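Course exercise 7: structure representation. Students receive a sequence record and must write out the corresponding structure in token form. The form below is the worked example handed out in class, using Mesencephalic astrocyte-derived neurotrophic factor homolog (185 residues). Read each field label carefully; the graders check that inputs and outputs are placed in the correct fields and that the protein name is recorded exactly as given.

STUDENT ID: A-19
EXERCISE PROTEIN: Mesencephalic astrocyte-derived neurotrophic factor homolog
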Amino acid sequence: MQSYTYIIFSLALIFIISAVHSKKVVDEQHCEVCIKTVGQFADSLTADEKSSPEKIEKAFKKFCSKVKVDTKEHRLCYYIGALETSATYAIGDLSKPLAWGIPVEKICRERLFKSNPQICDLKYEKQIDVNAVDLSKLKVKDLKKILSDWGETADFIEKSEFIKRINEVKDKYAKPSGDAAKKDL
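STUDENT ANSWER:
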């Protein structure tokens, strides 16, 4: 009887350990463009539209026609098949689960990801706070991006030239950090 209890205890322990290790940590940036865009779309639907996959598809095509070209959201619409130029048609993977009340995160991370993994590769660019970062530790690519986001020309060769130019014009574009603002008061 004692060995039987030991076996049951051992199996229960193994089950608990495997269950703990099988839990995946959700990366918040995984499918961030899809989750945000589809979430905004779902929030814009009326109760009548939410009940029918066909109405959701029609509304999503209309939603995507209003999205700015050359944005992450436009690319998402292309991947799902809501644009006339789309090569694929996966709107059913969006409209049916949305009509069934499945959460947006699950639709993006599981259903749409299965139909086209590129959907979850779309990520928003993180803005670099030039006042809080050591510019000498950034890559030249990031320094170029800072200047191009500001609309400044950047035809330099050396990293030091990029840093010098950023420091020359950053007062015009970057808000002062909290410490600098406190010193001015």
